[in-house]
User: Fold this.
Amino acid sequence: MERLNSLRAVVSETEHLPARESMEVGVAYLPRDRSVMAFFCPCGCGREVFIPFEDHCTVWKLESVEPLTVSPSIQMTSECRAHYFIRGGRIIWC
Ligand SMILES: [Zn+2]
Assistant:
């Protein structure tokens, strides 16, 4: 599996996220309202990651879209256990 070192954001003109089969590796997709972000895990495991921003329970904040910056770090609870920061469009592995 090849780890990515960068991730760019694409904001949709609609309220919908693209279908999984039309998503590209290395691109994070957001609907127009930027309430959520979907992308393939940058570790290369092929899992889809959904980061909610509007839920009151969420810990994540979308600091910047271009370049993409999200805080705090993202840690997968699935078996890949990927743990990384997204800062300035870069993936910073922990
Ligand atoms: Zn992964």
